[in-house]
Specification:
Elements: H1 4-21, E1 23-28, E2 31-36, H2 43-51, H3 63-81, H4 87-102, H5 120-138, H6 146-150, H7 156-193, E3 198-203, E4 206-212, H8 213-238, E5 240-241, H9 258-270, E6 275-276, H10 280-285, H11 288-314, E7 325-326, H12 344-367, H13 378-402, E8 408-409, H14 411-419, H15 429-432, H16 434-447, H17 451-457, H18 463-469
Parallel strand pairs: 5-6
Antiparallel strand pairs: 1-2, 3-4, 7-8
Helix pairs in contact: 2-5, 3-4, 3-5, 3-7, 3-9, 4-5, 5-7, 7-8, 7-13, 8-11, 11-12, 11-13, 12-13, 16-17
């Protein structure tokens, strides 16, 4: 029978073995480091995990960037096979990249945005995961190297900006433009449906001359239409890729034609048209295209803020506000006031707009700080750009589905406001002049009478003339000139 101390030694040894079995030993130029045995990443990823504990899971590199890295590394491997990369290794890399693109390996990309400003740690995270998975796929003892094979003819300085553009273009085309288009179509449909409903216009939040509810909504749909055109106009610059510039833009360690071929292959894999950047120095040192895209999103958010605020203002009530339109009632609005319903979709959209404004400021500051040959704010730029794209797309889909398509005009209320509007007097300007028309309006307001009654009382016109000249239907557009 063993002495208790010997038993304790055995227990300690077994625990030590168990702990060691949970890890594998990886190495880089800094030496060896323990990595969880069930993870495909290697030493540099593990060091980044230990050195940059910032932000937690909410700060993890966006999945769109990781998938874009999969596309890039696959394209590079295919092209590199034509430039001497071992075919067996190259094909294994391609298979591993397909798993990155599909999202199967997403749990193996834990790094946060707040790391080196070039995104080197994420580039190496991808290189290590792809290399280890490719080695596993080969299964013949051949080791795929993260730098020599997966990162062949590449640098973090050109791969990360390339994935920034791939991710941005993909999300804009796949998510943002369809969402904006749906919102535009819904607003345009409202414009057509409401085109014969004449209402009191308002400027400075005061009564103004009439227009139709359809005309009012046509302004909203046109704002969104222009927003789509703005973001589309940025796509040619976002479609230029930095790959092939390597470290400082010179293309060191690449072959002639590598950049063009990789861009063509990325286009083929992604389904979106990309080209090699004509000037790699600009592509590495600056991110003006991303700043421009963020600016377009900022303008779109500005439009959406105005639209959402107008819609909730027109729908305010139900008894003590404008109440000109009825908004869909989706959920209870108050924990204390029974029966209260709030314009929650408008509120959600306006909060998204506020966030986009903040994101744009971050992108602007980060974009302006590209020093010499390399901007080192890349991760935070793409994080905020993608965040804005996703937020606007999601908010537009929600706003369209849960608010805009269900808007109903309150024609009774609209008619009562119109009939009581003092600004209908504007139609009298060409007939009796501005000063007399103003006196009619002030008299009607002071004595709480109609415009017609005030005009007749002041002997400025007859009742018949008033009916002829003041017709809201004739006040919603220009008239033909008659000599």
């Amino acid at each position: 029978m063993k002495h208790p101390r010997e038993q304790n030694d055995d227990t300690h040894q077994s625990k030590k073995v168990a702990v060691e079995q949970k890890y594998k030993i990886e190495h880089d130029t800094f030496g060896e480091i323990r990595v969880p045995y069930d993870r495909y990443w290697g030493a540099q990823t593990q060091r980044s995990l230990q050195n940059f504990k910032i932000g937690g899971k909410k700060a993890v590199m966006p999945e769109a960037v990781i998938r874009s890295f999969g596309i890039l590394k696959k394209a590079a491997a295919i092209v590199n096979m034509s430039f001497g990369l071992d075919k067996q290794i190259g094909e294994a890399i391609v298979k591993a990249c397909d798993e990155v693109i599909s999202g199967e390996l997403i749990d193996h990309f834990p790094l946060v945005v707040y790391q080196t400003g070039s995104g080197t740690q994420t580039n190496m995270n991808v290189n290590e995961v792809v290399a280890n998975r490719a080695s596993e796929i080969l299964g013949n003892g051949v080791k795929v190297h993260p730098n020599d094979h997966v990162n062949m003819s590449q640098s973090s300085n050109d791969t990360f900006p390339t994935t920034m553009h791939i991710a941005a273009v993909t999300e804009i085309k796949k998510s943002l433009i369809p969402a904006l288009t749906n919102l535009h179509d819904a607003l345009e449909n409202c414009s057509k449906k409401f085109n014969n409903i004449i209402k009191c216009g308002r400027t400075h939040l005061q009564d103004a001359v009439p227009l139709t509810l359809g005309q009012e909504f046509s302004g909203y749909s046109t704002q969104v239409e222009y927003g789509i055109k703005r973001i589309e106009s940025v796509l040619p610059r976002l479609s230029q890729l930095a790959i092939g510039g390597t470290a400082v833009g010179t293309g060191l360690n690449t072959k002639i034609g590598f950049d063009v071929k990789v861009a063509e292959k990325i286009s083929e894999i992604s389904g979106y048209k990309f080209v090699t950047a004509p000037n790699k120095f600009e592509a590495l040192a600056a991110h003006d295209a991303c700043v421009e895209a963020s600016g377009a999103l900022n303008t779109i958010a500005t439009s959406l803020m105005k639209i959402a605020n107008d819609i909730r203002l027109l729908g305010c009530g139900p008894r003590c506000g404008f109440n000109e339109i009825l908004l869909p009632e989706n959920e209870p609005g108050s924990s204390i006031m029974p029966g209260k319903v709030n314009p929650t979709q408008c509120e959600a959209l306006t909060m998204v707009c506020c966030q986009v404004f903040g994101n744009n400021l971050t992108v602007t500051v980060a974009g302006s700080n590209g020093h010499l040959e390399l901007n080192v704010y890349k991760p935070v730029i793409i994080k905020n750009l993608l965040d804005s794209i996703r937020l606007i797309a999601d908010a537009c889909n929600s706003f369209t589905k849960n608010c805009v398509v269900g808007i109903v005009p309150n024609e009774k209320k609209i008619k009562s406001y119109l009939e009581n509007s003092l600004m209908l007097v504007t139609a009298l300007n060409p007939h009796i002049g501005y000063e007399k028309a103003a006196k009619i309006a002030k008299t009607a307001h002071k004595e709480n009478t109609t415009l017609k009654e005030a005009g007749v009382k002041l002997n400025f016109l007859t009742a018949e003339q008033f009916d002829q000249w003041v017709n809201p239907k004739n006040m919603i557009g220009p008239k033909e000139y008659k000599a």
